[in-house]
């Protein structure tokens, strides 16, 4: 394990995996911020201490809150596979420059995807950033299977 931590590719993977995982974690407080800021709560217990009339106004959805929440869900669908496949990819011993290209490109795509999603940028901004990030993950998966495929 100590020698693995000294490998440059593994350290690069660890760096970029941590960045995208932190980005994903920060979406939850951002959702909470939008909920409080827009006065739109998803659960009755969130507004239980408010007067009855105010509860009716606060127990609702808001497009901005839903946009941030959907962005967070999209992160779960994309970042988790990247981390798992990226770990396997890093263990196959790729060239550092190629690995860095994969890790950096995916990270940039996910950050831009969140900006496009939350900022409601016009399509195809969000779709392209999602698709390119997905292609990076598929590229790493292809490399893993090409290196270790045993049937």
TrEMBL record:
- Can you say where in the cell this protein is located? Endoplasmic reticulum membrane; Mitochondrion outer membrane
Q: Which reaction does it catalyse?
A: RX + glutathione = an S-substituted glutathione + a halide anion + H(+)
Any one GO molecular-function label of the UniProt entry: glutathione transferase activity
Q: Name one GO cellular component term.
A: endoplasmic reticulum membrane
Q: What is its EC number?
A: 2.5.1.18
- Where is it mostly found? endoplasmic reticulum
Q: Which Pfam families match?
A: MAPEG
**What InterPro entries does this protein's entry cite?**
MAPEG-like_dom_sf, Membr-assoc_MAPEG, MGST1-like
Q: How does it sit in the membrane?
A: Multi-pass membrane protein
Kindly report, in one word, the top-level EC class recorded for this enzyme.
transferase
Report keywords, A-Z.
Acetylation, Endoplasmic reticulum, Membrane, Mitochondrion, Mitochondrion outer membrane, Transferase, Transmembrane, Transmembrane helix
Q: Which Gene3D superfamilies match?
A: Membrane associated eicosanoid/glutathione metabolism-like domain
PANTHER family from the UniProt entry: MICROSOMAL GLUTATHIONE S-TRANSFERASE 1
- Quaternary structure (record): Homotrimer; The trimer binds only one molecule of glutathione.
Function noted in UniProt: Conjugation of reduced glutathione to a wide number of exogenous and endogenous hydrophobic electrophiles.
Family (UniProt): Belongs to the MAPEG family.
Quote the protein name from its UniProt record: Microsomal glutathione S-transferase 1
What is the originating organism of this protein? Cyclopterus lumpus (Lumpsucker)
Q: What is the lineage of its organism?
A: Eukaryota, Metazoa, Chordata, Craniata, Vertebrata
